[in-house]
Amino acid sequence: MQDFVSLAQPVSYTTPYGSFTWGDVSKWVLFAGPDIFEDEGMVLEVAQELKQVTSELGIPWILKCSFDKANRQSLSSFRGQGSEIGIKGLERIKAKVGCALITDVHECAQVERVAELAEIVQIPAFLCRQTDLVLAAAKTNRVIHIKKGQFMAPWDMKPIVAKAASTGNKKILLCERGSSFGYNRLINDMTGLVEMRRLGCPVVMDATHSVQLPGGLGESSDGRRDMISVLARAAMAVGVDGLFLETHPDPEKALCDGPNALYLKDMRSLLTRLQAIRKGLLA
Question: pTM, whole model, 2 decimals?
Fold first, then answer.
């Protein structure tokens, strides 16, 4: 375990909502929330429940929610209520709940506005090689969460890390979210978590998108929800610095990525098990 921890330099970040550290064996951070801003009431419900559960379990938590989904397969797929509606709604939810936020950008024009809104700026997996986008996000000096493309090996992230770090921003997190394995399938190699940490950055595991079956429903993605907890527990046993989990009160009715989302009512039991695994590593 100590060998794994020593591979990366810790990243610490203080926000009005608390201090967060990635890269310290005694800590891990949870990114969790709904996939997208469907409506303000649903996102608020999820955020309030997650804050209560994580506070009771002692887990540092940052709300995850997208205000727009530009990378949908079908033109008819739900991508949000509009960027400005989503951004203003997330601002109100942050104020009501009192929490930090991670959300993603899809083009350079969004970066400045998102950096005002979110403490963590996320680069989607499909866009991790987009030089202008990575540089613009890194120049905000926010923590940058870069998802590894499904089409890339863990060590392929090295020049992307160098690209972001060239701006002087060293607050870089890397995220594993599965690798393409033939048609409509992703798989996970847990040794990839170690390989990416050798690049010097803390590593987060996206256990929900990792179970995605891209295009599996024809015009949208299917998923294997029953495998989310399996991957989350395995990653926690490796010693990852954070977990990324999407959750929804009723995933069957979610407007985006429902097959890859956990039922909100099941989050407490999973997080309790994950805390037990982490404490076991420290014993």
Answer: 0.93
